[in-house]
């Protein structure tokens, strides 16, 4: 399948440059994706961040080299992009549980993380209801936070940001500004530079932004709009993963270079019957 072939070609590039500079932008280009979306897709499918995968693979190769050669630890560190012996030692111990020098001892236990290979797995655990709609650009106003390109960390921090925003009393003020579609309080995930992203809690409006808030224009694009039912944030996080790992590979679409949207309606977000939407930016495969 072309979509998976591109991802595996990107992994090929990473593997060939484990002892060299790995450019995330180049890997994303091979995968025909933006750097932002490539890292998100990788995290969803692989179950770990791209940076963690690269670190594990480099430490696996480093362990082989330490055991099978007379290379100095500092030379192995430099070969794998670590200018500081301390940072290399820390990374090595985080993966293997022992220091680089101890890796040469007879009988020491080390870990090996093989090269990843993406394959499609059709689970079909539950249906996903969606519709395809093209929308003009629209402006949002709200509050935002900067987050690192780490899906596990962002999954933990986004709910905290929501809690803080609710406690601050900003939600009623946002709702008073709302006068455009999509109707609801929005969670908007927009790339900054491929290494971190902005997450907005906002509404669609043509009203000016209050002094303590910011605005942002969501570009015109085509959206796959998915129904999400269940308690937050678990239900929406699980749906987002399923969209990337189950729906996208067989859809005939690619991830478009536009923000991801969550559209929250009124109701009890802790209820198993709570309903909201995920707007997933798409474009026809080229």
What does this structure look like?
By secondary structure, this protein is α+β, with helices and mostly antiparallel strands. The protein folds into two domains: about 1-105, Homeodomain-like (Arc Repressor Mutant, subunit A), CATH 1.10.10; about 130-285, Regulatory factor, effector binding domain (Multidrug-efflux Transporter 1 Regulator Bmrr, Chain A, Alpha-Beta Barrel). The protein is about 40% helix and about 25% strand. It is built from nine helices and nine strands. It has helices at about 1-15, 25-30, 35-45, 50-70, 75-80, 85-95, 150-170, 170-175, 235-245; strands spanning about 130-135, 140-150, 185-190, 195-205, 215-220, 220-230, 255, 260-265, 275-285. Strands 1, 2, 3, 4, 5, 6, 7, 8 and 9 form a nine-stranded antiparallel beta sheet that branches. α4 crosses α6. It is elongated and about 70 Å long. The model has no long low-confidence stretch (mean pLDDT about 90).
Overall spatial form: elongated
* Separate helix tally: 9
The count of domains is 2
Share in helix: 25-40%
Using the CA coordinates, give the radius of gyration.
22 Å
Average pLDDT confidence is: 89
Structural class: alpha+beta
CATH C-level class of the largest domain is: Alpha Beta
Low-confidence stretches: none
How much strand content do the residues show? 15-25%
CATH architecture of the largest domain: Alpha-Beta Barrel
* CATH evolutionary superfamily of the largest domain: Regulatory factor, effector binding domain
Distance between the termini: 14 Å
Order of helices and strands: HHHHHHEEHHEEEEHEEE
CATH topology of the largest domain: Multidrug-efflux Transporter 1 Regulator Bmrr, Chain A
- Report on the biggest sheet: 9 strands, antiparallel
Count of distinct strands: 9
